[in-house]
Amino acid sequence: MIMTEFWSIELSMLFAAHLNVDSLSAQTCAYQTAWLVYSITASFATAANIRIGQFLGSGKPKEAANAKNVTYAVGAVVIFINICLIVIFHRWFPLAYNTKADALTLARRTLLLIGFMQLWDGYNIINTGIVKACGKQKRSAMISFLGFYVFGIPVAAFLMFFVRIDIYGFWIGVIIAETVTNIFLFLLIYRFNWENHAKAALVRIQFNTNNISIVTTGNGESEDTKINSRNDAEEIIPMESIGLKILVLLLFILFFIAGIITSK
């Protein structure tokens, strides 16, 4: 799930290398700065992931849903801080990476675009953390693959090599990709049945040898619910694992083909 996004961003260096030295230098600065602010949002998303997971594992779906809402609210503050960091220091970040003098202007303008991109990137990271807390990594991986490899990367390549707007095209492609992923992730989270996720969490952590989940319902009452055994749940896991491995293999093949094409 996470690697689908990581690998797509790695392609930016491959694309920039086929433009010119200045573009590669500016893209290196933009790439590293983007990951710097990514780590800030990812840390917050991990904390939210853990907190929501704790509520689900404790059989408290209402509290988990409330934690999700708080995550969105506090996440807006984190995103705003990231935007301020990039906008305020965009003139000095390129100097920290020993960016070529001819590429300074391109790097600084690209950083402003990346600052604008945080509105999409931040909530993409936060949504991914919420989905992970509910054990829906497979769906999130499929959404990321759709957004980045079906929409984002093709648009980025078109803008860079055919429209010829330099590395700006790549980051515009990322914005388009994250627009797609955020739409689907928001819809997925909106449709979550938190009580069912709490029941599933109790099965996974094996707190109940009798497979009885004690879940606090929306009216504050406790409800004992008979749920499928862990063995029944694990029957599905091998097929999901095989599907995930096939997806990873296809991604590696895609990168291999892209490397051959771009090296010519």
Can you give me a brief rundown of this structure?
The chain is mostly helical and 264 residues long. Helix content is 79%, strand content 4%.
What would your notes on this structure say?
Residues 1-26 form the signal peptide. Belongs to the multi antimicrobial extrusion (MATE) (TC 2.A.66.1) family. Keywords: Membrane, Signal, Transmembrane, Transmembrane helix. It is a single chain. The protein is mainly alpha-helical and 264 residues long. It has one domain (2-263). 79% of the residues lie in helices and 4% in strands. It contains ten helices and two strands, in the order ααααααααββαα. The protein has helices spanning 2-17, 21-57, 61-89, 93-96, 104-133, 137-161, 168-190, 194-205, 230-234, 237-263; strands at residues 212-216, 222-226. The chain has a two-stranded antiparallel ribbon. A hairpin with a 5-residue loop joins strand 1 and strand 2. Helix 2 packs antiparallel against helix 3, helix 2 (21-57) crosses helix 8 (194-205) and helix 6 runs antiparallel to helix 7. The longest helix is centred in the first third of the chain and has 37 residues, at 21-57. It is globular. The model is unreliable at 227-238 (pLDDT under 50).
